[in-house]
Write a structure and sequence with these properties.
This protein has 14 helices and twelve strands. By secondary structure, it is α+β, with helices and mostly antiparallel strands. The longest helix has 21 residues. It is elongated and about 105 Å long.
Length: 360
């Protein structure tokens, strides 16, 4: 849901700029993976709907912890029970019940949803709720389904606001297309890689796919916009690397620090600098040196591994335009060359992934 708060930030930036304040500044709103965003949107909508209609339906029937508690609650030795003679139907217990399982008007508790948090005992000011033996509450085990009248108004408001924001986020924000108002900048396109790129520390494509649970932690912490959820059916929502918006900086190891599943193993900065996840491939037909007749060398200047050198395109003439040559043995596949290449829409140099990572 990053696009949501990015849109909010841009709204504040727009308003602040009108008052000559620069406390906020515009950021690019980027939906990293449309399929993942839609899945997140649907999941969020389902959770909100279930919470609105039946309280903790997700917690009690889908969440493993809540489901387990709901099952054993039916056979618990002690249960909370409402003493009708002391209850004045104030509804205080029902308002503070996290599971929304108390009907204060009918003095009933749905024990299949009750997680025995005992908050109701603390909130009741008349001592009308007691924690008693199971035999004392046998006649109170059946509770009606929560009706529409019992749904808290705050939930309806929350649903309305959430739906409004979610609908707005579906429309992708207009990204900046000009550089200083002088030239149109065409977006880069993802090259067709024969082998996908996986982060340093993942050991291999197979190891990464086998252990990754698509938790998105590495995607959320990547400061260079390299990791994004996959839209492929075979690896849906698992992170993949691409260099249209940034490259994998050798000094960054954040993804390996947060991975909880072992798909990306912890590595040090020195280790990362020697891990080869792929190698750069030069595409002659896309290089601006040959297509536009200009000097470039951007890929060689910014290669952190020093794996690219500029040589004369014509061996017989030293003054001929310089083109890049890649030393595959030194290249670590960081993507700096691909990201910083000025060629559009496809870079003149791109990184091809390795099935198994190597050490250089």
């Amino acid at each position: 849901f990053a696009p949501l708060y990015q849109l909010g930030n841009n709204m504040f930036a727009y308003l602040a700029e009108r008052t000559e304040s620069y406390a906020f500044y515009d950021v690019d709103v980027w939906v990293k993976s449309l399929s993942t965003f839609i899945i997140a949107l649907i999941t969020f909508g389902v959770l909100v709907f279930l919470a609105w209609r039946n309280g903790r339906t997700y917690c009690n029937t889908i969440c493993p912890v809540g489901t387990f508690l709901g099952i054993i609650a039916k056979y618990s030795l002690f249960k909370p029970v409402i003493d009708v003679s002391k209850c004045n139907s104030c509804g205080l217990c029902a308002r503070h019940c996290k599971a929304a399982c108390i009907d204060s008007k009918k003095h009933e508790i749905d024990y299949s949803r009750c997680v025995v948090c005992l908050d109701c005992l603390d909130k009741c000011q008349h001592g009308a709720i007691k924690y008693m033996r199971r035999s004392a509450v046998k006649d109170k085990t059946n509770s009606p389904v929560v009706t529409q009248d019992q749904i808290d108004s705050a939930r309806r408001n929350f649903l309305s606001v959430s739906t409004l924001f979610a609908t707005t986020a579906v429309i992708k924000a207009q990204e900046k297309k000009v550089d200083g108002g002088l030239a149109v900048i065409e977006d880069k396109k993802i090259p067709d890689r024969a082998v996908v790129l996986t982060p340093p520390g993942s050991l291999s494509v197979r190891n990464f796919a086998k252990h990754c649970t698509a938790c998105q932690l590495c995607v959320s912490v990547c400061p260079n916009q390299v990791l994004r959820p996959s839209g492929s059916l075979m690896t849906l929502m698992q992170p993949e690397m691409s260099y249209e918006r940034g490259y994998c900086r050798p000094e960054c190891t954040k993804c390996s620090e947060v991975c909880p599943a072992g798909a990306i193993r912890p590595i040090s900065v020195s280790e990362k600098s020697s891990i080869q996840i792929g190698h750069a491939v030069w595409i002659k037909e896309n290089c601006v040196v040959l297509t536009d007749g200009v000097d470039c060398g951007n890929c060689a200047r910014h290669c952190p591994a020093g794996a690219i050198q500029m040589v004369a395109s014509d061996p017989e003439s030293y003054d001929s335009p310089k083109i890049p040559v890649v030393n595959i043995e030194r290249c670590i596949g960081c993507g700096a060359c691909e990201n910083l290449c000025p060629a559009r829409p496809f870079s003149a140099i791109y990184v091809e992934g390795h099935e198994t990572h190597k050490t250089v």
